[in-house]
Amino acid sequence: MAFNIYDFTTLTKSIHEGLSSQFSPTATLAIEWTIVGLAYLLFVALFGLFLVYAERKVCAAFQQRMGPMRVGPWGLLQTIADFIKLLMKELIMPKNADKFLYNLAPFIVIIVTFMVISVIPFAPGLATFDFDIGVFFVTAVSSVGVIGILLAGWSSNNKYSLIGAMRSGAQIVSYELSVGLSLITMIILAGTMQISGIVEGQRDMWFIFKGHVPAVIAFFVFVIAGTAETNRGPFDLAEAESELTAGFHTEYSGIKFAFFFLAEYINLFIVAAMATTVFLGGWMPLHFGDFDSFNQIMDLMPGLFWFFFKVLGVMFLMMWFKWTFPRLRVDQILNLEWKYLLPINLFNILLMAAVVLFGLHF
Amino acid sequence: MDELREIMITTDEIKTDEYLINMGPQHPSTHGVLRLLVQLEGEIVHNVQPHVGYIHSGIEKMAESLSYPQIGHLTDRMDYLSAHQNNEAVALCVENALQVEVPERVKYIRTIMSELSRLASHQLWWCVMGMDMGALTTFFYGLRDREDILDIFEETCGARLTVNYSIPGGLMFDIHPNFQRDVKAFIKKFKTKLPEYDRLLSGNVIFTERTKGVGFLSKEDAIAYGVTGPTGRASGFSCDLRKHRPYSAYDKVNFKEILSDVGDTYARYQVRMAEMWESMSIIEQLIDNIPEGDYAVKMKGVVKLPEGEFYQRVETARGEFGVFIVSDGKKNPYRVKFRSPGFSNLFAINHIAKGWKIADLVAIMSTFDLVIPDIDR
Description:
Chain A is mainly α. Helix content of chain A is about 70%, strand content about 0%. Chain A has helices at about 10-20, 25-60, 80-90, 100-115, 135-140, 145-155, 160-190, 195-200, 205-210, 210-230, 240-245, 255-280, 290-300, 305-325, 330-355. Chain B is mostly helical. Chain B has two domains: about 1-50, no CATH class; about 60-215 and about 285-375, Orthogonal Bundle (Cytochrome-c3 Hydrogenase, chain B), CATH 1.10.645.10. Chain B has helices spanning about 1-10, 60-65, 70-75, 85-100, 105-130, 140-155, 180-200, 205-210, 220-225, 230-235, 240-245, 265-285, 340-345, 350-355, 360-370, 370-375, and strands at about 20-25, 35-40, 45-50, 165, 170, 310-315, 320-325, 335-340. The two termini of chain B are about 25 Å apart. The mean pLDDT of chain B is about 85. The interface of A and B includes residues 65, 243 and 327 of A.
């Protein structure tokens, strides 16, 4: 097996054995939990900062400008400076806000992103949870995030926030269907809902190639619906700044705003990571049937590289959407889902079922 | 708040499912301190009540204590995107009152400058239109090309926005030796850039879906509300003063009056896009034929208008701009009244936006191309 040198199982196992020999099982578990928790916190914070920087640079490239250039070389420290600024800002609460819900909302949004991120396999052996129902878990938990947005809009006691939250609610509940159905299409092909099983199933060929026509349709539906799920342009109605100033987070400042901001970028990562895992082979290298020498060269690159290469590719695509398209109107966004994506999706499931049933895939 | 309560009380039957929001005075899509009191039912707009006056600067009153050449300088600050056309209107009004004939050279340069300001204004409108619709990249494309025009302005008269170039009797300075070369270079460049605008925004399916068939204004209503400029022409109201009452050198050039009989948001968009091509064609016809001569006629040190009432209209980027001067023979006017296109256009918004959604209201407002100091003066 060529993967072995890059397999994180060896590392995690040796850490576990080392700790077990020193501490009691309970203490070992506690230490491991802390390490994993801190690793996720660090990853989310650093990757979030990187994504903000990347988005600003990508958007600058589309808009024929330089982006941040002043703080650090090529503006690399800009987002860190911005983050420090956000930490030091005063937390302003509207006078008649519902205090408890107002404070709760950003935490719901950020906790949900952490929960979803915990099932994503970054590299061989580098995933925290591996449920039998992994894909189901992702769709189920990610829909809880909308509660945070609705609460934020409701408790701010601001009409713009409320309109933004209601739009967001209608939008996410609708697009949840398309995300779920396009994932189901792929589950039919994979034959399992376990995320490690799905990745393992793509050892010879990524599902987007294996499932050809229905898989490609499902991929496009997933990327469109996923963009809508993350409330990003052209589906950014919930925070449409020219209409609703800042939508549901109009009344948030400082670190609470930073939570929403960070959650948006981590959600972007989650959608891209799910697209990578389910359609593009997760951390699996690019393999073509019998071209053994080609496959071996591809194997030389570590799984972590492949994973982030694909994730960043999908994220670039989604940033491209945002900085090119105008925003849709609220009725058009619902029409797109209920009149186009949903029927396409349902038909696509039948197509995929037929493809799998008659063994028409590669 | 008192105002809101008043409206709630004066409404005969209070509907619980309608609510009011204040768009502005600080709001990203009003592009200034305009306040719209919007009555909504869910997302649907039931009533829009514009409240103006937040940036009222009393220019008309100030003008009463200034001399005629000084009034022109104030008009820059009204519709700052049509600064040159406003200057020109005052200059023409005073010249007509004194029956001064300016040299041909002045007329040509004024026309070219007018069209350049129209182009710059339409470019900025296009940037902002895209931004209001959520396509943020348009802003930078438009500003990139507008920069070239502002550079030409700066070279010509030292200012980029408030140009102060036309004064009664002619121009402040002669054109820069590089003027013709720069303008020609700009036109050549912009002809390749304008199709880019279409590729980025006009042809986009989301954009056309959001603008086609949205926010109708009929020709009768356009006339009734006094809606002029590209907004009126998109409804089929032939109101181009450059065509109907040519001033400066507009009678010497060949150009089409862009008209559309559709009257929706998309038509207003397309009329302005087509006007950019027409402006370029007007400049091209004039730029090589600027006659030699003086750039101003010698005026008296103190300009005194004869007793009477004088009115001059010009076509700015937003529509018909009028200067009405009542003179009692002194060096200051007795009364000055400006007819600003933005003010008349704005008040058609309730008629148009009723029944459409909030997002449509923003798009409609954007195609009106509002400049708030022009409305408030």
